[in-house]
C-alpha cells in the first residue's frame, strides 16, 4: 500500500508502467493528474492481480478530481470497470457522457480515452482492468456503454457488483486457483452485463433458439465436426434457420465454437494443476489439433501466443 500526498501525479495507476508503454518524452502513458479539494489531503492506493485482471483500490479523505494526462498511445482492446465502494457519489465523464455512481454502483471506461473522475468528499474507488475483452464481446457495443451506470443494467450487473466487492475483501485470502476462477467469473459477468444492456429488458423469450443451440454446442465443445449442419440435424431445423439465429446474435456457429475452445484453452493454460501439460496437449483436449493455427488464433484473440501468455500470466514455463 502506498500513501500519496497531494498535489501529485500517479504514474501507472495500476502499478504496471512497463506494460502500459511510454508516452513521448519517456513518461508513462497512463500518467494521472489529480486536483484536490483542499490542502492536507491524502490518498492510499493498493494494487493486486487475479489471473489476467489488474485491480487498484483508492481511498481518499477529501474530494478529488482525476484525469489522465493527454498522451498519445496505441489503442488497447481491454476495458476498465470503476466501482464506488463507499463514501460520496463518484462522477465519471468520457466521450461526452457522464454518470453519477452511488455506493455499490459501477461503470465501464477505457484507460486510453480521455476521461474525468471526480468526487466531493471521502471515497473508496475500485478499478478493475480487463487486459482484453473476452470472446464474443463486441467492442463497438462496449464503447456504447462507456460512462453508464451498469449496475442497473439487469441481474448480471447486480451480481458483478457483489463479486467485485467480495473480490476486494478476499484479495489476501484466496488461493491462486481461487483467484483464477474469480477472474473467470468477473470476465463472464462483464460479458453478461454487456449482453443484457444490448437486449430489451424482461424475461427471456420461451423460444430461445440461440440459447438452446449454444448450450448444445457447449455440452459437446470437445467433439469434432461441430458446425451449422450438426446443429440443424440435432434440432430438426434447416441449416438456414440455424445460420439466421446466429447471425441475429452477431455470430456464426464456427466462430462460437472456435471462441469457446480458445477460452477453455486459455483457462487451462493458467491452471496450476495442468502445469505439466504442453500447449499442444491442452489444445487437443478441446478439439484443436493444428498447432500453427492454434497459435495464430490464440494470438489474434489474446494478444500473445499461448506459451507466452501462459508464462506471462501464470508463471508456468511451458513448451508448445
From TrEMBL:
SMART domains found in the cross-reference section: HTH_ARAC
Short name of one Pfam family: HTH_18
Keywords: DNA-binding, Transcription, Transcription regulation
Record domain HTH araC/xylS-type: where: 211-312
UniProt key word Cell wall biogenesis/degradation: no
PROSITE patterns reported in the protein's UniProt record: HTH_ARAC_FAMILY_2
Protein name: Helix-turn-helix domain-containing protein
Organism of provenance: Kineococcus endophyticus
Amino acid at each position: 500500500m502506498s500513501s500519496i500526498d497531494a498535489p501529485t501525479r500517479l504514474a501507472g495507476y495500476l502499478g504496471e508502467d512497463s506494460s502500459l508503454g511510454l508516452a513521448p518524452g519517456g513518461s508513462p502513458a497512463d500518467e494521472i493528474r489529480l486536483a484536490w479539494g483542499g490542502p492536507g489531503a491524502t490518498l492510499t492506493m493498493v494494487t493486486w492481480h487475479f489471473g489476467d485482471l489488474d485491480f487498484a483500490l483508492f481511498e481518499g479523505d477529501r474530494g478529488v478530481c482525476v484525469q489522465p494526462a493527454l498522451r498519445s498511445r496505441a489503442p488497447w482492446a481491454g476495458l476498465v470497470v470503476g466501482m464506488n465502494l463507499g463514501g460520496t457519489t463518484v462522477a465519471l465523464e468520457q466521450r461526452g457522457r457522464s454518470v453519477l455512481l452511488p455506493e455499490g454502483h459501477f461503470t465501464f471506461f477505457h484507460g486510453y480515452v480521455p476521461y474525468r473522475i471526480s468526487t466531493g468528499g471521502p471515497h473508496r474507488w475500485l478499478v478493475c482492468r480487463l487486459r482484453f475483452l473476452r470472446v464474443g464481446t463486441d467492442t463497438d457495443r462496449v464503447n456504447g456503454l462507456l460512462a453508464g451506470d451498469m449496475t442497473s443494467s439487469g441481474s448480471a450487473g447486480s451480481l458483478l457488483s457483489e463479486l467485485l466487492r467480495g473480490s476486494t475483501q478476499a484479495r489476501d485470502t484466496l488461493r491462486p486457483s481461487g483467484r483464477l476462477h474469480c477472474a473467470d467469473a468477473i470476465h463472464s459477468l462483464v460479458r453478461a452485463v454487456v449482453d443484457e444492456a444490448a437486449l430489451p429488458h424482461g424475461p427471456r423469450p420461451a423460444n430461445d433458439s440461440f440459447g438452446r443451440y449454444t448450450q448444445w454446442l457447449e455440452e459437446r465443445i470437445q467433439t469434432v465436426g461441430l458446425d451449422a449442419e450438426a446443429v440443424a440435424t440435432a434440432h430438426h431445423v434447416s441449416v438456414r434457420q440455424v445460420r439466421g439465429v446466429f447471425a441475429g446474435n452477431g455470430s456464426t456457429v464456427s466462430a462460437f465454437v472456435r471462441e469457446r475452445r480458445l477460452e477453455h484453452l486459455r483457462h487451462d493454460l493458467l491452471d496450476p494443476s495442468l502445469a505439466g501439460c504442453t500447449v499442444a496437449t491442452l489444445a487437443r483436449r478441446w478439439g484443436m489439433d493444428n498447432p500453427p493455427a492454434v497459435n495464430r488464433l490464440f494470438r489474434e484473440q489474446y494478444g500473445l501466443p499461448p506459451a507466452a501468455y501462459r508464462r506471462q500470466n501464470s508463471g508456468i514455463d511451458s513448451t508448445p
